[in-house]
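hey team, just a heads up i'm posting the complex here instead of the shared drive bc the drive is being weird again. everything in one block, sequence lines first with there labels, then the predicted structure for the whole assembly after. its two chains so it's a bit long, scroll down
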Amino acid sequence: MAEKTTTRREFLLQVAQGTAVAATGAMLWLYMLRQEARAHPYALRPPGALPEPDFLAVCIKCGKCVNDCPYDTLKLAGAGGNLPIGTPYFTPRDIPCYLCPHIPCMKACPTGALSPALKNINDSRMGLAVIDIENCLSWRGLRCEICHRECPLKGKAITLETHPRPISKHAMFYPIVHSDACTGCGICEKACPTEEPAIRVFPHKMVQGKIGEHYRLGWTFDTEITQDFKPSGPPATGGAPAKPPKKAPGMDYLNEGGL
Amino acid sequence: MSSIEPTRQDAQASLDKIRARTLPQRLWSWRYIVLRRVSQLGILLMFFGTAHWGWQVAKDVPLLTGNLSASKFAGILPMADPFAVLQIFLTGHVLQTEVLLGAGIVFAFYLILGGRVYCAWVCPVNMVTDLANWLRMRLDVRPIFHITRNVRYLMLAAALVLSALTGVAAFEWVSPIGMMHREIIFGLGLGFIALLAIFLFDLLILKNGWCGHLCPLGAFWSVVGRHTAQLRVRFDARTCTHCGECARVCPEPQVLNLKKIAETGYVYSGECSNCGRCSPLCPEGSLAFDLRPLIRRHNERSARVVS
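-- predicted structure starts here --
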């Protein structure tokens, strides 16, 4: 084999070519990373998932959570989709999370992207259910309340509020979601009977506001200033607040003999 | 002991031997390639069977869950890709013991066996690039340009630096290896476009372009196996006629620098993936898989036979 001699000029050119290839590659690479990381923020993660940026860094994309999900709820995001590549997610309208008490997906995770700090599945916060009150059957005045009935944490995550209404004997039963208890499992979204679900689960970041530190709810604590706004002494006897009627119309219609 | 310089006639005689092989002999020289496909597809099948057909070793003990990034065999043996774990580590996150242990196990395995055994025997993309390379040889595609194969080490460095800078595991997010495995095991996405790109790149643009020039995972394993690999290809300089068939079929021909490997007695470069193309083809039996501690003794024995 003849020894190849390289002149300085050739060597420098080779270095330049190598660098050019590497730089082109790196730019393409960075572009793809940015595309992936900017992917649509609508991704519901399995229970126990770390906050999204940490989750994206730590998840090794092995799919063991998907293997161990007994309901085939979890899927891995494919390449070219609108979710960050290779990460697990679920679509509640297809298959919601059924809140296995022993949390097999979290236990399968080898990296801790699904954090073992989650001990009770009811403490998971995969997302938050939001009701479109314009299209919710219950809010429109029909009797539905399926979401409330199906909710694994009914009475805590979804409560019903009854409202009398003057035009009908029927009361309104408004389902209300409470963020302090909603796990984001999506069983309500799956159960919702409307053509497009009127209750849907979103990542908290997409729907939840934040009050901010500088707002003070004055009536919740005592300071020198809020003292001034409080009524001094017992209320005058003559001006007692009107008591709510014992029975609002429609509240007890089944017992009122109206039917 | 006298080392005889092989003549042109010797080399021609070797080439004639290769041409004169019978069909069974030709097929037999493909044995390692067949074994590699069995290994690559078998691993893929075990993952797929566990994911889709519930393959178990015992009741409620799945056979092999996960994919090449991280997996668990028979419910007890964790495995993980050390390169992926290194990237995640560089994003500044603490990982759980299971994945660290798994990465350690896999790392130790390839450290002892030879890093790029992964490339030739496990990596699914190897099937795509081997096909491209085979087709390229059949079609006699002329090279357009050459770049140094050391670009892969730049890619390796870039993967680590980009992981630290962007806060996500840079190669794992674009890896066609991960895409191929995930999409076969967990359902289709558009990852096959990346594979098609690699196929066309290797076929029409640069010979051994992905595995031999660009892949940072291959570069990682090249570095890992460099000094510790025990499974190596023994080279017997005394019987070699310099016919050059080994380098022609080798996907990393720079590792077969005959002068240098004559001194060491084996293919020492970490870039050799133990793919087993050269040794069954060698008409003089100068190249053969061997364990490194035994190589010196085997070469001396053959020297005695020759003299």
